[in-house]
Amino acid sequence: MKKIVIIGSGGSGKSTFSKKLGERLHINVYHLDALFWKANWEGTPKAEQINIQKQLVQQDEWIIDGNYGGTLDIRLNAADTIIFLDIPRLICIYRLIKRRIKYNKKTRPDMGVGNEEKLDIEFLKWVWQYPVSKRPHILEKLELLSMEKEIVQLKSSKEVETYLESL
């Protein structure tokens, strides 16, 4: 386990989990949100996202967290381990609200500089619809990759905690 992808809905705990995993395994963590959101929420062009990820996955060891479905295959194909935080949407929504309060008028540690925490209706809708709109496609991809990669699907905070403790 040296090339690890962490995926899941917004609010599923990807950044927190990847940080803890990186500390346990002594592997550098790359948060795609921090890499792809420039100051004042200016997005990075897709071509640049592709180049950044192609460079990252050439390293010997890495943990990369984030979804970015349009470039997900770059990471999935290069990974030896894929961890899907398949957390219920109500928990994800709760965590997003809690995060918004905690980082009010601040930038989260896993976010690009100059991007104060925000929470808008579009993102909440995306998270609410994730189990129907994104999850089935993710599960299909994971099933296809399960013969050649280690796939870990964690469905609760307890499972996440237990997994980290087992390492």
What does this protein look like?
The protein is an alpha/beta fold. It has a single domain (3-166), classed as 3-Layer(aba) Sandwich (Rossmann fold), CATH 3.40.50. The chain has helices at 14-25, 32-36, 46-56, 72-78, 89-102, 121-133, 135-145, 157-166, and strands at residues 3-8, 29-31, 37-38, 42-43, 62-65, 81-85, 150-154. Strands 2-5-1-6-7 form a five-stranded parallel beta sheet, sandwiched between helices. Strands 3-4 form a two-stranded antiparallel ribbon. Helix 5 (89-102) runs antiparallel to helix 6 (121-133). The longest helix has 14 residues, at 89-102. It is globular and about 40 Å long. The mean pLDDT is 91.
Stretches with pLDDT under 50, minimum 5 residues: none
Structural class: alpha/beta
Determine the oligomeric state from the structure. Answer: single chain
Query: Cα distance, first to last residue?
Result: 11 Å
Helix content: 40-55%
CATH architectural type: 3-Layer(aba) Sandwich
Order of helices and strands: EHEHEEHEHEHHHEH
Question: What is the helix tally?
Answer: 8
Counted up, domains total: 1
Short description:
The protein has 167 residues and is an alpha/beta fold.
Q: What is this structure's SSE topology?
A:
Blueprint: E1 3-8, H1 14-25, E2 29-31, H2 32-36, E3 37-38, E4 42-43, H3 46-56, E5 62-65, H4 72-78, E6 81-85, H5 89-102, H6 121-133, H7 135-145, E7 150-154, H8 157-166
Parallel strand pairs: 1-5, 1-6, 2-5, 6-7
Antiparallel strand pairs: 3-4
